[in-house]
Automatic annotation (TrEMBL):
It is a multi-pass membrane protein. Catalyzes the dephosphorylation of undecaprenyl diphosphate (UPP). Confers resistance to bacitracin. This is Undecaprenyl-diphosphatase. The gene is uppP. Belongs to the UppP family. One of its GO terms (biological process) is cell wall organization. GO terms for molecular function: undecaprenyl-diphosphatase activity. The lineage of its organism: Bacteria, Bacillati, Bacillota, Bacilli, Bacillales.
Amino acid sequence: MERLDYIKAIVLGIIEGLTEFLPVSSTGHMILAGDLMNFTGDKAGTFEVVVQLGAVLAVFLLYFKRFISFLKFDFSKGSGLNALHLVLGMIPAGVMGVVLHGFIKEYLFGPTTVLLALIAGGLLMIAAEQYQKRHTPSAETVDDITYKQAFGIGVFQILALWSGFSRSGSTISGGIFMGTSQKAAADFTFILSVPMMIGATGVDLYKSRDLLVREDFGLLLVGFVVSFVVGLIAVVTFINLIKKLKLSWFAYYRFVLAALFFLFVM
């Protein structure tokens, strides 16, 4: 493995750690950055998924007590957020991800489709912000989220299978449309990302097992560790920001990024 490859892994790990917690699409950023650095192909796609897991591990540590509480398996009314909420939130995108895995890898992991997804996701976020201004949420905190809302948010998460759309952008927007506050939707989004990314990484690694060789593990490990460390530094600040800032601000950033990349790179 060339030293340049490790430099690319470090750069992508930093990008992942900084963008995983914002509704700007960490995968989209890594695909665009990978295209600029000529780091593309099937192995690059697998690398991107593994690196995401490093950032998600930072979320797991932040919400560690919450995940421990899920082990009680208390599904009674008034018990607050529990494991069943996560299962319901995972089912739609989990099923579609398995069914459409080949299609997604072949057609939705390129720079052009990412640029389109950045724009489409931004428009959804603006629509959600406008909806939020006209409606009072029924779920102010993550513990107020109903099973119906959890499943509905999971349906919106299907959009995140389109690389560049953003998992947090689609689920936070979905939560708002389903009647949750932005803060509740953000908390649920980050908690839900842990089992979703663990599952996605497992499926992707299994399907890509023939592409990986021993020499690749060092590259994967570097990207994983860098994204985890950067994620730990960024997670608290960024999670607080996404709970407070207007979604339209992130949408405008997405539009500018897509325009600049289209004008000067494509």
